[in-house]
Structure formats: structure tokens, C-alpha cells
């Protein structure tokens, strides 16, 4: 996914830090589902949807809600008319959001590449840049954080045993494939452990 932003600059929300070196981009984007949020703080539809997206993102990445932060990153692709409007909007959004610098021509390139004609739009991408969902706005409205499991499986991410905190209280909300994923995770973990033990025996 870092290849999509190769040579570009991403800015951390409400901070001066820039994510621009290849190593930083790889660290921020690799092995994660990427959301490209095309929106504007002045658009009435965006003002209705953005709080939902904020809650969606927080519930998947904040330790208060999840056992382990999900493999999810969001880049805001602004249609705001001024930098002040863009900054005001981002101040109300999660700190973990990334954004392209205001006025960056790459905003328009992304709109054309992913056929975004109106906002709000949320393009969901695999780590290799393939599209999982062309516009997930309605899916996020309808399913909330639960739709991340579908994206995670579609993206074939390296397993991180993702579970919502609420799953501990309500087993019925778990995915049907959850036991299989957890078994796979345990088997992979066991293989790695056995491999390390064999290496230790050989070295001794």
C-alpha cells in the first residue's frame, strides 16, 4: 500500500509530523486495510456521515473498545475549499487519521483513479492497493465496526486475532469463521515457537 503514496507526503492529524520517507510509509500503511475518506467539512452529507465514521474508526482502534487495535489506517482526501476549513474539520476527528497536505494535486488523482464523483465516499483497499469496496459509506452506516471482519478476510492480512471488546460479552456477535481464525492463529503461533526451539537446539 505504501507504493500508492510513494514519493508523496502524508500529514498526521493535528500535528506537524509528516510521514514521507519510504520506511515511515511502510510502517504506517503495510499489512493494513486502508480507508480513503473523500469528504468535506462543509458538505451537509459529510457532516451527517463523518461522526459515524469517527465512531467507527475509534471503536476499531481505541483500546477502550478493542482487545488489540485493528489493522486499519485512514487517509483523509479533502474537498475543503480552504486550509482553515480543512483544519477545523480534522480537529474534530481522531488523531490517528492521516491526510494529504492541503492543495496537493494527488487528491484529484485519487478521485479519478477510484472514480469518486461525489462525497462522502470511503474507498476500502487491500495492502497491495486492490479495491475491496468502491464506496463503503452505506456498509459502515448499516453494519458499523462489524464490517471490518469482512475487509480483514478479503485483504488476507497477517492474523492479529482481532476481536471487538463487546465480543467478550456477546458470543452471538462473533463471526462464524472466528473459531477457525483463532485456531489458525494458535497453530501458526505453535509452529513459530517450535521453529525457534529447534533453532535453539541447533545453535547449542
TrEMBL record:
<dbReference type="Pfam" id="PF13905">
    <property type="entry name" value="Thioredoxin_8"/>
</dbReference>
<feature type="domain" description="Thioredoxin">
    <location>
        <begin position="1"/>
        <end position="142"/>
    </location>
</feature>
<dbReference type="InterPro" id="IPR013766">
    <property type="entry name" value="Thioredoxin_domain"/>
</dbReference>
<protein>
    <submittedName>
        <fullName>NXNL1 protein</fullName>
    </submittedName>
</protein>
<dbReference type="InterPro" id="IPR012336">
    <property type="entry name" value="Thioredoxin-like_fold"/>
</dbReference>
<dbReference type="InterPro" id="IPR036249">
    <property type="entry name" value="Thioredoxin-like_sf"/>
</dbReference>
<dbReference type="InterPro" id="IPR029520">
    <property type="entry name" value="RdCVF"/>
</dbReference>
<dbReference type="GO" id="GO:0005739">
    <property type="term" value="C:mitochondrion"/>
</dbReference>
<dbReference type="GO" id="GO:0045494">
    <property type="term" value="P:photoreceptor cell maintenance"/>
</dbReference>
